[in-house]
């Protein structure tokens, strides 16, 4: 069954390892017949949640005007969300974290998203995969809290330069995950 998959990327580096990882996942998902939309959070201006609790009361998901207004309809159409991000200081970078934080608007407004599944593809400079435990745990807690089924985690460590991912099996693993959704 074809799914609408929203791919949220968190890297400010255009064409870098994270972009390549997202594109590989998207290629696999498209081969499997799914529809994908890539939303590059680093190219958007999404402010952090200020917990005003006026979500959806002023004509958009968030009362603070920013690019979350463009993301909200994509979230509402999605059956699945895939977070594709570099790891910054053992967690999500601010570019994607602000978008994740604003999922709160759906809880406050008691609006249900049709999203049922999620996945995480994460790259980072450290070689030791245990250093990714913080971001993976955060992701899994988000999935559990929102009752989303985790469809997989792809970790690609040891990436520093823009094309380092080409020296790994990370793109193949991302594409395989996309094909198997």
Structure description:
By secondary structure, the protein is α/β, with parallel strands linked by helices. It has one domain (4-176): Rossmann fold (3-Layer(aba) Sandwich). 34% of the residues lie in helices and 19% in strands. The protein is built from six helices and five strands. It has a five-stranded parallel beta sheet with strand order 2-1-3-4-5, sandwiched between helices. Strand 4, helix 5 and strand 5 form a beta-alpha-beta unit. The longest helix is centred in the first third of the chain and has 15 residues, at 17-31. The chain starts with a strand and ends with a helix.
Please tag this protein with its features.
5 strands; 34% helix; 181 residues; single chain; Flavoprotein-like_sf; 5-stranded parallel sheet; 6 helices; FMN; Rossmann fold; alpha/beta; oxidoreductase activity; 19% strand
The CATH superfamily is known as Flavodoxin domain
Number of helices: 6
CATH fold name: Rossmann fold
Mean pLDDT: 97
Under the CATH scheme, which class?
Alpha Beta
- What is the first-to-last residue Cα distance? 10 Å
The side-by-side strand order for the widest beta sheet comes to 2-1-3-4-5
User: What fraction of the residues are assigned to beta strands by DSSP?
Assistant: 15-25%
